[in-house]
Design goal:
- The protein is mainly α.
- The chain contains ten helices and four strands.
- The strands form two sheets. A two-stranded parallel ribbon has the order 1-2.
- Helix 9 runs antiparallel to helix 10 (140-155).
- It is globular.
- The relative contact order is 0.13.
- The mean pLDDT is 92.
């Protein structure tokens, strides 16, 4: 969500052909007091974990104590059928993959948004904003590859 906000992509990401959800604990701890209601109005869903998912979150906490409580909940939620984990956190991504989960990052989402009709110009502008931030951890080569491709599309029109 942070990178999406930095790039000005919240509206287009949350109104795409997919549903984005966060566990209730993550929403209440990290989003509610900031822009949570706005995100909900854009389409962000908030889900409650089942008892089995709560057990999974506790299991992950024992095996991977470095993750946050919100990470445990997100990982458990992402184990649902037809759900994927969208995260740039290396440790969380590794744990999800170890549990046979499907994991993607913000660059994958930008690719999906492009396929859904978000303009190359908007993607170039937003990705430039994301990469300019001092705390950007996106892989530089992947960012540059997308920027080149989207810029070429702008100039070939």
């Amino acid at each position: 969500m942070i990178d999406l906000e930095r790039g000005g992509f919240l509206e287009s990401a949350l109104s795409g052909n997919w549903t984005m959800v966060v566990p209730d604990l993550l929403y209440e701890r990290e989003l509610l007091s900031e822009n949570g209601p706005y995100l909900r109005s854009l389409g962000l869903g908030v889900v409650e974990l089942s008892p089995d998912e709560l057990l999974l979150a506790q299991e992950v906490k024992r095996s991977r104590p470095a993750l946050s409580l919100a990470d445990y909940f997100a990982l458990a939620c992402a184990q649902r059928k037809d759900h994927v984990l969208l995260s740039g956190d290396k440790a969380l991504r590794a744990e999800a993959r170890a549990r046979n989960g499907i994991v993607h990052g913000v660059l994958w989402l930008l690719d999906q948004m492009h396929a859904a009709g978000v303009s190359s110009a908007a993607l170039v502008e937003g990705l430039n904003k994301i990469q300019a931030h001092p705390r950007c951890r996106l892989p530089k080569d992947e960012v540059q590859r997308r920027l080149r491709r989207w810029r070429l599309q702008l100039h070939s029109r």
